Amino acid sequence: MIGSTVRPGTARAQWAVAVPALRASALPFIVSRALVLIAVWVARVLASEFHMGRAAANASHAGLLAWDASWYQRIAAGGYSSLGDGALRFFPLLSVLARSFRAVPGVTAGEAVIIVANIASLAAFAVLYRIVVFELGDEGCARRAVWLLALAPPAFVLVMGYADSLLVVTSLVAFLGLRQRRYGLAIGAGFLAGLSRPVGMLLAIPAAIEMGANWFSLSRRDRMAAFAAVIAAPAGAAAYLGWVREVFGQFLLPFREQLSSSHRGAVADPFVTVWSAFVDFVHGTHLGVAEHALWALLFVVLAGYLLSRLPASYGWYSVGLLAVVLTASNLASLERYGLGSFPFVVAAAMLARGRNTFRVVIGLSGLLMFTCAVLAFLAKYVP
């Protein structure tokens, strides 16, 4: 009926919001998956035709279950107990959700992990579109952000059996809840983020900023809910760590594993680490490490832009993640960690305004993603 309205909060209102978000997400979702699957095929051909060694053969054969995805697969199949302490650094949400799909006849643990990761990716694209429209009122920027999240150079992990897609979608939903003062939504999503990956706990930063900004305008009940949103993500992580303490005897064992020299490494001076990477880049040595320095510089610039253009919670969330990543003695996977902070993608979409500019950016980004994916499936690049 002409002139009729849909009341906010009704099923019709939610569907009216979801439809354009899903439309904007469908093509980027399909294109990114097609590129990654082609990358798997290319890697297998190269590994076979050029006899690139056992590591390349194994990684290309594993495909979407290569690298860390193999850990999630094994955890989903048989739990943590038989895999040793090294498995504990992989937080449980992805594997737990994957187990629900194993009830479907014929679905293996590996397939279930990939299914969950890709459903979460599609949801992340849709919620990203929604939150950009909410913050900026710019559907064009929202579409650009979705494309950039789908085709960012490290985004091939959103197709693989990795937990990054769960971290992104839960952090997006938590932000939307915080910004709209829908604290129940923020609490639930924050708790799940804390169960998805260790850096999910950083959602306490934007939650605290939003609570402080709104404190005097909140009712007593909403103040309690806002405080619960602040502790939700750490509580999710604490729930997993408590289980580890009960079963394996050490509360912080997952972090000790992650901080070992073979993984993230001990806490280091970020200026020393990044400067060393820049020196390697200038001299053409250790280029696999040196390129991380360029990414670090890009993330620092984008964080500064976020702090100047968006509400403080977005910028300081990204700064917090950068502080965690750049204080690692091992910068491997820096790009993937940066992808986990969705505001970086929003900043890039805001900067790539012109149609021609965006075409260049997204074309180059997609090419780099494809290249990184091929190298990862040849065991030449650490995702």
Q: Can you offer a commentary on this structure?
A:
With 383 residues, this protein is mainly alpha-helical. 72% of the residues lie in helices and 0% in strands. Helix 7 (164-179) runs antiparallel to helix 8. The longest helix is centred in the N-terminal third of the chain and has 39 residues, at 11-49. It is globular and about 65 Å long. It starts with 10 loop residues before the first helix and ends in a 6-residue tail after the last helix. Mean pLDDT is 91; it is low at 1-8.
Quickly list its features.
single chain, 383 residues, mainly alpha, 17 helices, 72% helix, globular
The structural class is: mainly alpha
Residue windows where pLDDT falls under 50 for at least 5 positions? 1-8
Order of helices and strands: HHHHHHHHHHHHHHHHH
Largest sheet: none
The CA-CA distance between the termini, in Å, is 52 Å
- Helicity, in percent? over 70%
Report strand %.
under 5%
Provide mean pLDDT, rounded.
91
Structural shape: globular
**Number of H- or I-type helical stretches:** 17
The overall strand count is 0
Radius of gyration: 21 Å
Short description:
The chain is an all-alpha fold and 383 residues long. Helix content is 72%, strand content 0%. The model is unreliable at 1-8 (pLDDT under 50).
Topology:
Elements: H1 11-49, H2 54-62, H3 69-78, H4 93-101, H5 109-136, H6 139-151, H7 164-179, H8 183-196, H9 204-214, H10 220-248, H11 253-258, H12 270-283, H13 287-309, H14 312-326, H15 334-339, H16 343-351, H17 355-377
Helix pairs in contact: 1-2, 1-5, 1-6, 1-17, 3-4, 3-5, 4-5, 5-6, 5-7, 6-16, 6-17, 7-8, 8-10, 9-10, 9-14, 12-13, 13-14, 13-16
